[in-house]
Design brief:
ADC_dom_sf, single chain, mainly beta, globular, DUF2071 domain-containing protein, DUF2071
């Protein structure tokens, strides 16, 4: 059963009284986590946001996934958006004690989804042709090359699902319930996101081509990422609002 707003733990409580505006499902999610020197990321994150680190180490995560069942509140699924693949590149930030994610880039194979998110959420969204296929347990994910970005990979789960342990790095990486960005004046903006805690599985992945970190001039501490897989999350998204910087 989906978690209701009134019974979620403290760190997941909403910071807006507005109703959610969109619901969608994310499936076959791969989290590829790369440790990155703190100073490198501090130079890439807007000054209005504070880089969040785990034991003084910054992290960047590449996330390919499939979006489906997208619909606005009170309306049926949006025509032309039945299911489409996408990926994002994110790091971790905090503001006023509320941890969240900051996206360096996001892509979607659906033009309307990419255009709408870029327009209404002020996010660095790109439209890109992609190929997604599930062959038994193996996910085949391929994108074209555009704006220096390209991701070709295969991945699969290799364990049973479980919720991340309290206080673990896994929990720190994935249990975040808002996204941050800034407007043209550098003022922080926030959109709340709500879903059940991630059911994570250990994963294996083969990256045939991956230019996503290179495009940001990021060299990770280790070439091999920490990998997690999640089968599905049903997500509610709130409108983007100005985040008070106390």
């Amino acid at each position: 059963m989906f978690v209701e707003e009134g019974c979620i733990e403290e760190k997941r409580k909403l910071t807006t009284s507005l109703p959610w505006i969109m619901k969608q499902t994310w499936s076959d999610v791969l989290f590829a986590h790369y440790p990155v020197p703190r100073k490198v990321l501090e130079n890439l994150v807007p000054s209005g946001l504070t880089l969040d680190t785990f034991y003084q180490t910054g992290w960047v995560t590449i996330v390919p996934y499939l979006t489906s069942s997208m619909h606005l509140r009170g309306l049926p699924p949006i025509p032309g958006m039945a299911a489409f693949p996408g990926f994002n590149v994110r790091t971790y930030v905090t503001l006023n004690g509320k941890p969240g994610v900051y996206f360096f880039s996001l892509t979607a194979s659906n033009f309307l989804a990419a255009y709408s998110a870029k327009t209404f959420f002020r996010l660095p969204y790109f439209h890109m042709n992609m190929y997604y296929k599930k062959a038994k347990e193996l996910i085949i994910f391929e994108s074209e090359k555009k704006s220096g970005l390209q991701l070709l990979c295969n991945y699969k789960s290799i364990s049973a699902p479980s919720v991340a342990d309290k206080g673990s790095m896994e929990e720190w990486l994935v249990e975040r319930y808002c996204l941050y960005t800034v407007n043209e004046k550098g003022v922080p903006l926030r959109a709340d996101i709500l879903h059940e805690p991630w059911l994570l599985e250990r994963a294996e992945a083969e990256f045939q081509h991956n230019t996503l970190l290179k495009a940001l001039n990021i060299v990770p501490n280790y070439e091999r990422p920490i990998l997690h897989y999640a089968k599905k999350a049903v997500v509610r998204i709130w409108p983007i609002v100005q985040a008070e910087n106390k």
